[in-house]
Amino acid sequence: MTERIPVVRATPIPIPRPSRAPEPEPAAHPVRRIMGWAAGTALVLVVALAVAVAIVPAIGGATPLTVLSGSMEPALPVGSTVVVQPRPASEIAVGDVITFTDRSTESDETRIVTHRVMEVQPGPAFVTQGDANNAPDPGLVQAADVRGVQWYHVPYVGLLRERLFTPPGMYFAAAVLLLIIAAYLLVPRTVTVPPDARRRR
C-alpha cells in the first residue's frame, strides 16, 4: 500500500518595497515675498498720492500748494498739501479757508497765505486769521487777491512732493528704485522646503 505524501501549498508572502522619501518641494523665497509685498504696497501708495495731489486737482481745475508754516494748525499741519479751488468772491463766507496773495508786507515782495475768513466786508473784502494766531491778519484781503478756497488737504505730503520733484530728489528716487530692483533680482526665486517642515506648519 502506497503512503500518500500530503501536498502543502505555499502562500507567497509579499515583500514590502522600500518607500521613496518624498522629494523636497520648492517654495517662494520669504525675502522675495516680503519685497514683493513691500513693492506692491509702495506702488499703491504712490498711485493714491499721485491721484490726490496731481490728477484730481488737474481735473477739478484746482491748485495744490504746500503748507510751510504752522499758522493753520491743527487743521493744516506743516508739510501738508492743500488743494484750493477757484470760487467767486461773492460766494466766500465766514469760516472758509482761502488762499490769497498777501500784499501787506513792508517790502515789495508778496507771499501766498492760506488763512480762515473771520469777517466779510463790503467789496467784498475779507478779514482773515490763522487758526493758531492770536490776532487777525493786518489789512483786508481784496477779492482780486484771492486765489481759491480750500477744497481738501493731504497731511504731510507737501514737503515730500516739494523735495521729490527736484533734480536731487529725482536722482535719489531713481537710485532707491534701482537698488530695490537689483536686490529683487539677486534673491533666488524659490527656496527648498523639506516635506517634514511643511507638515509641521
UniProtKB/TrEMBL annotation:
<dbReference type="GO" id="GO:0009003">
    <property type="term" value="F:signal peptidase activity"/>
</dbReference>
<keyword id="KW-0472">Membrane</keyword>
<keyword id="KW-1133">Transmembrane helix</keyword>
<keyword id="KW-0812">Transmembrane</keyword>
<dbReference type="Pfam" id="PF10502">
    <property type="entry name" value="Peptidase_S26"/>
</dbReference>
<feature type="domain" description="Peptidase S26">
    <location>
        <begin position="43"/>
        <end position="104"/>
    </location>
</feature>
<comment type="function">
    <text>Catalytic component of the signal peptidase complex (SPC) which catalyzes the cleavage of N-terminal signal sequences from nascent proteins as they are translocated into the lumen of the endoplasmic reticulum. Specifically cleaves N-terminal signal peptides that contain a hydrophobic alpha-helix (h-region) shorter than 18-20 amino acids.</text>
</comment>
<protein>
    <recommendedName>
        <fullName>Signal peptidase I</fullName>
        <ecNumber>3.4.21.89</ecNumber>
    </recommendedName>
</protein>
<dbReference type="GO" id="GO:0016020">
    <property type="term" value="C:membrane"/>
</dbReference>
<feature type="transmembrane region" description="Helical">
    <location>
        <begin position="37"/>
        <end position="59"/>
    </location>
</feature>
<keyword id="KW-0735">Signal-anchor</keyword>
<dbReference type="GO" id="GO:0004252">
    <property type="term" value="F:serine-type endopeptidase activity"/>
</dbReference>
<dbReference type="InterPro" id="IPR019533">
    <property type="entry name" value="Peptidase_S26"/>
</dbReference>
<feature type="transmembrane region" description="Helical">
    <location>
        <begin position="170"/>
        <end position="191"/>
    </location>
</feature>
<dbReference type="GO" id="GO:0006465">
    <property type="term" value="P:signal peptide processing"/>
</dbReference>
<keyword id="KW-0256">Endoplasmic reticulum</keyword>
<keyword id="KW-0378">Hydrolase</keyword>
<dbReference type="InterPro" id="IPR036286">
    <property type="entry name" value="LexA/Signal_pep-like_sf"/>
</dbReference>
<dbReference type="InterPro" id="IPR019756">
    <property type="entry name" value="Pept_S26A_signal_pept_1_Ser-AS"/>
</dbReference>
<dbReference type="InterPro" id="IPR001733">
    <property type="entry name" value="Peptidase_S26B"/>
</dbReference>
<keyword id="KW-0645">Protease</keyword>
